[in-house]
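wait is this the right file?? whatever heres the structure
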């Protein structure tokens, strides 16, 4: 994967397949203490205890359509290459938390990429799922919530004419305003 937003998309798709109705994505980038982390939390079915130690092995997957699972192993490899690691916490029936930690200044840390586009894809493809995206930098914090946005607009769906494009632009502008690094 060429940027972190694609890793995020893959992990969130795992959450959706696990039946999550609420998925939280938190990105923190702090110059002091040279920290960049991505935390994805869901309320899905969780990972069985016997499978949890094996989820970063690319040759272990629960999918029947293919014999390899590359999402978590690649995210772990990217984190390690950039001076960090991957933490996974999960409990059957109550969800999963995946946290990738990187060194912000590390030359091998991938750029974030098109996070506004990833959010647009997730919202369009999963209108029933509540997404909460928070991005924190030394310059500020931005949070986007599909539930709050639907309530504010008085609608059940954010897939209306032109609305997804406006949401994408709003997220992009807010990330620029807080000085998020590596966005497209």
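ok assuming it is, sequence goes like this
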């Amino acid at each position: 994967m060429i940027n972190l937003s694609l890793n995020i998309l893959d992990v969130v798709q795992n959450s959706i397949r696990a039946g999550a109705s609420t998925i939280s994505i938190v990105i923190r980038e702090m110059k002091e203490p040279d920290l960049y982390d991505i935390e994805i939390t869901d309320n899905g079915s969780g990972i069985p205890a016997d499978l949890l130690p094996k989820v970063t092995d690319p040759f272990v997957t629960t999918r029947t359509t293919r014999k390899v699972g590359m999402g978590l192993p690649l995210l772990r490899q990217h984190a390690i290459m950039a001076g960090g690691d991957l933490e996974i916490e999960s409990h059957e029936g109550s969800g999963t938390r995946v946290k990738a930690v990187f060194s912000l200044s590390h030359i091998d840390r991938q750029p974030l990429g098109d996070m506004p586009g990833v959010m647009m894809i997730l919202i369009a493809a999963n209108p029933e799922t509540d997404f909460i995206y928070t991005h924190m930098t030394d310059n500020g914090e931005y949070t986007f919530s599909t539930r709050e946005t639907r309530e504010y607009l008085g609608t059940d769906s954010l897939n209306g004419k032109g609305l997804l494009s406006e949401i994408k632009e709003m997220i992009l502008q807010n990330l620029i305003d807080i000085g998020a690094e590596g966005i497209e």
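The radius of gyration is 16 Å. so i think its the right one actually
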